[in-house]
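During the second half of the funding period, the structural biology subgroup turned its attention to how the target accommodates small molecules. The most pressing case was nicotinamide-adenine-dinucleotide, which had performed well in the primary screen but for which no bound structure existed. We therefore specified the complex as follows and requested a full 3D prediction, including the ligand pose.
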Amino acid sequence: MKIAVVGTGYVGLVTGTCFAETGNHVTCIDIDEKKVEKLKNKVIPIYEPGLDVLFDRNIKQGRLDFTTNLKEGIKGAKIIFLALPTPPGEDGSADLSYILKVADDLGPILEDYTVIVDKSTVPVGTADKVTAAIAANAKVEFSVVSNPEFLREGVAVEDFMKPDRVVIGTSSKKAQKIMEELYAPLVRQGNPVITMDEKSAELTKYAANSFLATKITFMNEIANMCELVGADVDMVRKGVGTDSRIGKRFLFAGIGYGGSCFPKDVQALAKSAKEVNYDFEILNAVMSKNETQKTKLIDRIKDHFGDIKGKTFSVWGLAFKPYTDDIREAPALVNIKALLDAGAKVKTYDPEAMENVKGQLGDSIEFCEDEYAAAEGADALLIMTEWPVFRTPEFDKIKTLLKENVIFDGRNLYNTETMAELGFTYYSIGRAAVK
Ligand code: NAD
């Protein structure tokens, strides 16, 4: 099948590459000329484990190509995916201008029956808006399908190739058949393709992300309680996570969720609810609690040091989670800003995200070649992202590098007893401080 993917970011590039891998011919289209130039030169502009092998193979075998020209890119395509940004607008609702602009542009250039797929996360009713925008100028028949994407950055290829489920929102039998044919190679093990109406599909994605954000926030609230009553959140986590109704995942306490999806999707769902005069109170609490959770360790730092003006902090981890270079809404950046605002200095190391942070913060902080260089001469160490490389560091070496043996751990990487034995002052989330 010939497919076009409009928008070649984290979702679009993975979608395009994976569908090429299952034998389709895919053209990826993006307005960012620099990005397309890189892709044409076989350079992947993002860090996503495992993507390179599939990317190289499918380019070599002539199934994957790139262009900035929409008309050229969609020529002959039976399916056109829209994997475009839907950032929060000023009022918190999802900004649909990217999607509707492309929908306007598509109308006059469709040459034959085409399935247009909303892959972006979009509010209820967007399929109708996209349909109206295309229909205004289309000369041929087309269907708009909602097919939300559930991949996680860092394991995106695996998630895409073996999805837990595929959600297809359409009222057209013809489009449904084409979509099912496309996804068949990815669900051979029997994972379901769930077909529903467009609105339910659109809401499914927001419900999933908002539920997960709520689960994280709930556990952070339990962690805050643990600190006040002298309980250990890791024990509570194990105790509740073994209940099959609750499940083990998304129960780790920390300094809050970030990333390009949860914050904006929770906000957009709350806003959508408001538009239909529904006060989705839980979501408002989740958003405000997550904000305060992000800087919890700053309070601990100030309690420990008093004035931190002139002090140096080593920050391990910048990405919003491990295995990605994505720094959108990363809690690390909020913490760095708080430290700089208080007159402190920051030295940092992240295995993949430093280039992106350099683009934002320039030389206001020091970027180091590894985690030990970042610790050298610092007054304390802060852990912001749970990269595996930070899990078992050489603690004896860290002791020789830090001015004071104190660690503020926003991801609960270390055992508190071990830290006590090693002689560290150790603050984490939802567990007793080791002093
Ligand atoms: P992204 O910002 O990484 O990529 C979007 C791309 O679209 C960019 O390369 C941009 O240049 C391009 N673009 C903008 N306007 C264009 C136009 N007119 N024509 C062609 N290209 C254009 O975004 P993303 O992270 O891939 O997210 C895309 C959508 O998928 C969002 O709605 C997001 O919520 C959703 N989503 C993201 C993830 C994730 O983990 N990143 C997961 C599931 C769903």
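Two results from this model are relevant to the next phase. The chain has a mean pLDDT of 97. Residues 198-229 form the longest helix (32 residues).
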